[in-house]
């Protein structure tokens, strides 16, 4: 005989308002859908008092009680998205066992469920977007949407226009495959250094440093200034600002929402 919850689950799956459980958790601010899927399979989620570990489960959040680690979740249509200026020597994480400075040290405890959309390496600076909207985060970080990112890069050596054009037209081959820049513009040069504006949509780890290092121009400073339509603007290092509704809408549109 089917378990009573199995019958209830089937009924809700047939309801027009039923959605996947991991999507509901993401909308409630528990992280990306992937992170929420792990929470489900780890046995941390209950629906109407029953433990749920099946990823295909659909629920109606307006009619069913959903709990994570015993606490009932509450959906809100109001989300917050932040533009943070990460300084060097700050970890792109919310906590660190080694006691290093993290993004949490910058935003404080006022945004309990906010998490970062992507990372910058420890020695890089600039724009990191943070949100409590799991759906938005999932799209911003998904390679499918190829959201462009802009960097101001300072490298050792003089890079001529021919090299900049080659990085866009031909690219370079790295250990994990070929990669091309979307744009590469020389902004300034001295005898020993070059400053460039670089645009690319790849999210590979340390990709900008690896590209220039592979052709003999080590990066000495890297600052991300823009992600999609969102610009860092006048936010000082170690500070952040709350994005306006218009900015969030433009970001959502850029990633297919």
From TrEMBL:
**Xref: PROSITE patterns:** PSI_RSU, S4
Q: What class of enzyme is it?
A: isomerase
Q: Name one GO molecular function term.
A: isomerase activity
- What Enzyme Commission number(s) appear in the record? 5.4.99.-
Going by the entry's taxonomy, the superkingdom of the source organism is recorded as Bacteria
The record places domain RNA-binding S4 at 19-78
- Pfam families in alphabetical order: PseudoU_synth_2, S4
Q: Which InterPro entries match?
A: PsdUridine_s_RsuA/RluB/E/F_cat, PsdUridine_synth_cat_dom_sf, PsdUridine_synth_RsuA/RluA, PsdUridine_synth_RsuA/RluB/E/F, PsdUridine_synth_RsuA/RluB_CS, RsuA_PseudoU_synthase, S4_RNA-bd, S4_RNA-bd_sf
Q: Which UniProt keywords apply?
A: Isomerase, RNA-binding
What NCBIfam families would the database entry show? pseudouridine synthase
Protein known as = Pseudouridine synthase
What species is given as this protein's source? Alloscardovia venturai
Name the lineage. Bacteria, Bacillati, Actinomycetota, Actinomycetes, Bifidobacteriales
